[in-house]
Records
---
Amino acid sequence: MNQQFTEFQQKLVEDFRAGKIGLPSMPSAVLQIRDALYNQNLSFEEIDRIIQIDPALVVTLIHVANSPFYRGESNITSCKGALSRLGLGTTRNIVTSIVLRSAFQSGDPRARKLLLQAWRQSCHVAAICHVLAQFTDNIRSDRAMLAGLIHNIGTLPILNHLLKTPDLLKHPKELQQLLHKLQGLLGRQLLRHWEFDPELCVIPVASSNRDYDSGKDEIDLTDVVVTARQYVILIRNRTPESEERFCITPSFQKISSDWDSNDEKLSFIDNEEQQISEMISTLSS
């Protein structure tokens, strides 16, 4: 890492510790919708009216309700119908997942490409998380998907900070090293700022550790995200050696405990390629 990046990193860490990092806020409409979904005193009709503040969100929510993952016997054509099919818990996680997409956008062309790359990676990891959760007894697929989407959310404050020193954006290798090193800490801080629950706030830091082990037999949300992230790394450069490294990660061993051989363990994810692709398409649309 060159001297300019080293100085930037030191300043970023100092500002982080001093609470001087400018953290992006969620749009007020999004906060209103999220609060409504957590308000147990509101009826479906009241929540329906609040969600319709954002017409684009309504369209996407209906699209998700009609996707292969939630499709019923009839076609959903209204927000209220989508709420009824999905339920409030699933709707809450899906709505949060949908609105995160807007956070990965920028009017600055220098940051736009990097944010798009980060969003695509988030969608890929989230889609795998959604599939993996189906092989667990205690993790909801929609919550696993949300956890996958936020695993690299720390990219946002780092890139916002980098725009003050735009020349650094011209060095992709050093930039990736910087993001890898700091996005976990800043991601955790951003999720706390957005008042996400503690289990989700730990995801950006904990899921970057391929050797993560909770010390418990029960699969947790971080296990799912760690496995998804490592699977993405695996398929980029798949060799017998990389397959072996993937299969011995503690998180994947928990999730794949019902299978014996490495071939069987890998096959249960590989066989879900179409479902993963469909979920990526749903998240990206």
---
Amino acid sequence: MQMRMRLLMTAEIAPIHTPQKSWLKKKLMLMGRVHQAAKTFGLDDDTRRDLMARVTGERSTKNMNPGQLAAVLDEINRIYQPDHPGVHSRFPEEKKARALWHSAYYLGLIEDDGMRAFNRFVTRQTGCRDRRMVRGDWDKVIEALKVMLERDGGVNWARHKLDIEPGNKKRCPRAAVILAQWRELAEYAMVPRGNAAILMAFIQKKYQLAKPLSPDQLPAELQDTIIRYFGKILRECQRGPDPAGGPDPAGGGGHDGGGNDGGGNAA
């Protein structure tokens, strides 16, 4: 009898794992993981809530079921995990926007081509606080940058070839930026005005090419180097006269054409 009573008492105090309690336990566990992941990756409350609303339609974890919480956690890890496969190439549009942003800097249209300034620009264009969540709105950013480069920087996107090759419509945005820079340098009397042959001769001499090539015929890496080189000279001109004497791009003056962060230019 004593043994039987002990067994009955043990059964009475043992926890009963009902489906409802298991569901709640799983939900609380996932809620904690979502908040921990957001903290780990530095998401503020608004960014986290925007992401949750995009994935589930809910802005609060309290209103989600375990399946929705798991989907939010997967999305956070997919976007923000540094070593997640494809995280750097998931949005080629972002890479293009960054290239245009660099080009705007090297045409003297913006003062800061760093990531924070770029993020602020992206937010103004899309309303999204985090560029990693922009997704389908990258076209807005790209178009805004192209308009700025054309309107304020003199970049002619419709013509990507030099006048010596009329009728060739091959797309080459980097060449369009180089030509715009060359025209701007001519405004500062740094190079002869309207002479494409001099530009080609300069490129051949400075970069030791076997023959003269127009900007559109150059490898993309060399195009980027030229954009950075011209950009440094152009920004010096825009800041004002140099007491020691300005650089002479047509004469191969003292810039090495190095980049600021290794990023490409107009793609």
---
Amino acid sequence: MKTKIAMIAFMAISFVVTGQVVRDTRAENTPPSGYNREVKYDFKAREAVGVPGFGTYSGMMTFAPWVDNSGGHHHQLNFNAGGIYYRNGLASATTWGNWSKILTSNSDIVLEGIYGAELKRGIYPFKMHWSYSDDGTGYGPAWIHTNTRGTTHPTMFLQTSGNSANLRVNDAIGLGPMTVELGKYPVVDTNTWVSGAVGENSYFNNGGNVGIGTRTPDSKLAVNGTIHSKEVKVDLVGWPDFVFEESYNLPTLKEVEDHIKRKGHLKNIPSVKEVVKNGVLLGEMNKNLLQKIEELTLYTIQQEKEIEKLKEKNKEIKSLSERLAKLEKLLEK
């Protein structure tokens, strides 16, 4: 970054001293090999040179220090309504490298380079480093830290560390899945936890479990607290509609009574001791409760049939009683 700023200052001074004329080459995009030990100032159509930013036209400086690759790269600066942009290329190259925006006092922070960049404010530096291959073919992992307690050997494309390493990801846009590791301390650990006070933390362990309000999750998601949700979906295998099949052996109420007397709870329903010890599996409990409801429905249907039979018998008894009363009256006469 310091080298780029020094180069800008040098070329600006050269422009004032020599009184260079700005050429109108708006439609041309001359490669690095088209320049030889010279400094040029040109009026360019922005799209012609493929530079980002805004506006139709731009001003461009070209600095070609030597005749071949032994003198290093040739350099270009482009000035347009979107800011100042820089690119370079070897002296013998037929194409330029990609444009990069140069940081100014009121522009968005864009840092790039082979060895990274560093901004400092007070005693707490903000650093961003990454590895960029010397042949210009690709980027390696980047790392950011807010003080000296960081890592210079990242294992991911973006890794934060420090006493307070907060990372906010709004939208993950890419060709594949994104992995985010969150940690309280600047160490690489498969067991990490985040958030504020202890007891209100989210915890991730190396078994792939997530805990909210607990640092010892024993399931994929363990919550020590109340869950507020509009709906909960549970995937189950099987459902107790077998109760309504002809082959189902419905226990008698006498058998149900005997089980309650011996066990103190319904069959296939956990006791209070089991619930206190192991909790309740909602899916399995709903299945067992539905089975009891279906059995109760069958008992009710049976009782309804028995009641109808008793009603018919009551009618017969009533009819016999009326006939007997008539006979008794006749005998009294």
---
Amino acid sequence: MHKYLIGLAVLLVLLSAPVPAESISVTISQTSESSKPQRLASDYFKKLLEERSRNRMQVTLELAGSGASDGLLQSLAQHRSQLVLVDLAENTRWLPQLKVLQLPFLFRNRQHLYQVLDNEVGQQIFLADKPPEHIPLAVWDLGFRQLATSAPLLLPEQLLETNIATSQGNAGFSFKLANDAREQATRPDLQYTVAFGYDMLLAELTEKPPQQINHLTLSNHILSGRILVVSRSFWDSLPEDLKVIVKGAVKDATLYFRELAQQQERQSLRKLKNGFLKIHRLTPAQRRDWQTEMQSVYPQLMGNTDLQIVESILNLDSVK
């Protein structure tokens, strides 16, 4: 009888013990072209998710082929990945509200950008017209693209005689629109350009400096970066406590990424200052001239997206 009671007590203890929650597999996919800050921040994000969930989330980091943003989104739609890091410039077509982040000369600097992303304006950008299948969680910025040219390019009117090669669709489109409008209005007989250049990240410029480029204008004219996106079906399936953990991990990994990206940019700028380029900084007046010039093409770049968000960003001017 005594042994029976002991056995019953043990059975009751086992039955009353909490059942370990089933682990959730999470795949985070990104392209093999990812920068060093992105790779380090991704590792940190994985660590945070696993530690804070006490391994209820088992995270795998997956590298896709180069230039594979469409493939990443497809893997998200097909549930092969739960989160992806995709190029900002290539994916505004399926997240049209993010077009505002690609408007040239909209942000003064990184501080202005972070002020926008980290307050209610950023929430408006992320939540507006949210498609049913994807949810943007964060922007991991690689910095702003700068103007590397064969001749000084400090004023928007000089753009008329400068051919800018760019890999950024919106930047190139806006420059072309501004060029065409001014060309038709003021110099319809212009048949050639007298200077050429590129819009590049500072890290790109230090790694692969183009030939015959002698000048660098620190224009901060367009944002380059990645969007961290989660599958809506995966997000909706998460328990509330894990959603809180994911949000906190996203915030902390984003802050870590920002530190790394800014450090990389400072290192690149130091190298460039010791190199062959003459570096120019736009004065506040010159920057206003560029912004005024580019604002004329904002409606065309934004399409049907509400321009009120642009005004909100421009009015957020506590950081000069």
